[in-house]
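May I ask for whichever protein you like with its backbone structure tokens?
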Amino acid sequence: MTELSEHQGETLVRLARETIASLLGIKADNPLDQEMLSTPVFQEKRGVFVTLKKKGQLRGCIGSLVGFESIVDGIRHQAENAAFHDTRFNKVVAEELADIDIEISILTQPQPLEFSGPDDLIRKLRPQVDGVILRSGSYQATFLPQVWDQLANPEDFLGHLAMKAGLLKEGWKNAGVEIDTYQVQHFEE
């Protein structure tokens, strides 16, 4: 998978902002050159997440773990979803957009992590590097690698991830739990 340059990442962050602004009826002062968005790397099918923060606090975060559309289309759709369809938050309104910082994450393909038990899982996880998908039956949740900044201890990280999935805090230790990991390139304003 192609690594994005800093400039390409900044372009995608601008695309996310322009998408939200446009849906709020706000015209861009200096709109992106649409031809620039046809760059081959932007046409790759990759999982993407768009995260919104207001004064450092989460304001919306939605994405796709796998790429079923181009990076450009994924950023557009997930920017809209993060701003208007994250059920944990009210919809973003025009008056607050200037106070919102946008971060995008471009994901690698998730890979199963083989482990023999809770201790082995802890040993194999790479804090600050791995995004983690936890599955147990019909329960599933993910944390992007950036979440390690708030939950640096692997047991805490996995405990919060288990609760996000709808399990008990110790649910990550259950037999039959499946773990996939992925990495991201992230860019922010």
About this structure: The chain has a mean pLDDT of 95. The longest strand covers residues 100-107. The longest helix spans residues 6-23.
